[in-house]
């Protein structure tokens, strides 16, 4: 099977063996976290309190609930959008069009959930069925990735992703073969990246907050902070939805198990870990410390949003007055690279902001357990690896100009450290 560029792209994630290991390790880690979060000792590195049997994992109702959720989000995706954005230019010089109505979907979901709860929908019972829901989401991700793999068999070569077409079934299934799998104008990767998982994550957080209120009379300050910070993050992602069109996942990666599982199962069930932990392990938190944690989150958000917006504005229109005065390096492709402003400080200022926010999400859970810091640890590893992948792609794209950028901006993520 030829790679779409004729030559084979270098294998990532440790090749087929690494891909196979990750396909097993990621779901196992997710279930481990779900189990230990509710156990007394809540030890990240200890064994799970028990191994659940199939009867505890499998529930047709949980599967039906997951499918209904996906159906609802797909229906909201298909509603008229305030704007239709064009993606980056593809190999065949065409550009795909994407509806910008993610924030509208979040608002409508909030309205529907609000109506449902006031009509007696037992949202606070959701934490009881997280295990079967996660199992159903994993099953859906596996079957969906299989269908995506089969769909790619009949896709034209120009529709294939640069990676994910090695000819090895396991590796290609994991990475994803087709770049932008679609049926008519419904774009599966774009839909999954921003809607069911991200909105599902804040819904699970809300259900955990409501259950805490039922158990203890009112939600704790720590639970409010975690819910507030993560809602801001998800709201921001959907408000600036168009910006996702310039991320590595949309431009470069195929749509396979990694993203399908990541979007549909990993994000909602592991990113809500801090709120899960707080439900079973309440943490005292006073206002002075809470204010300090809010400040850390605000600093992280300021850097994350500032850096992402600066790059997106520049990529959309380099003469925009907000970025026109920034210093740049010309590249042979005709595109320029920013070397001042946020992108002159480190080569991935947006990752730095994201990591600072990740710290702020864990701090409300106290410092006596490692478990709530799992997200910070995993995210650091993910971003260091992602940064390395991006560097290699940029070096290939921009050659000497990228080397000059690295010389001018020597640090990758943390100034004077890394
Ligand atoms: N919460 C989560 O789980 C995750 C969050 N994220 C977040 O998603 C966001 C997007 O991340 P990601 O897609 O990895 O990467 P970036 O948004 O940082 O995009 C990297 C691309 O930006 C362009 N670029 C790099 N340097 C410059 C420069 N100096 N001037 C202009 N353009 C430049 C290059 O593409 P080109 O030149 O082709 O435009 C490069 O390939 C980040 O904020 C990240 O933190 C990411 C992964 C997971
Ligand atoms: C666990 C696996 C090894 C990898 C799975 C990775 C995915 C969970 C992430 C890959 C890139 C992501 C992004 C976001 C969420 C996580 C995944 C899907 C993002 C939507 C979060 C919100 C941000 O504002 C963003 C910039 C829009 C993010 C884009 C990348």
UniProtKB/TrEMBL annotation:
InterPro entries: ERG24_DHCR-like (IPR001171), Sterol_reductase_CS (IPR018083)
Metabolic or biological pathway: Steroid biosynthesis; cholesterol biosynthesis
GO biological processes: cholesterol biosynthetic process
Coiled coil stretches, renumbered: none
GO molecular function: Delta14-sterol reductase activity
Localisation per UniProt entry: Endomembrane system; Endoplasmic reticulum membrane; Microsome membrane
Membrane topology, record value: Multi-pass membrane protein
Source species, domain of life: Eukaryota
Functional summary from the UniProt entry: Catalyzes the reduction of the C14-unsaturated bond of lanosterol, as part of the metabolic pathway leading to cholesterol biosynthesis.
Name of the protein in question: Delta(14)-sterol reductase TM7SF2
Species name: Muntiacus reevesi
Phylogenetic classification of the source organism: Eukaryota, Metazoa, Chordata, Craniata, Vertebrata
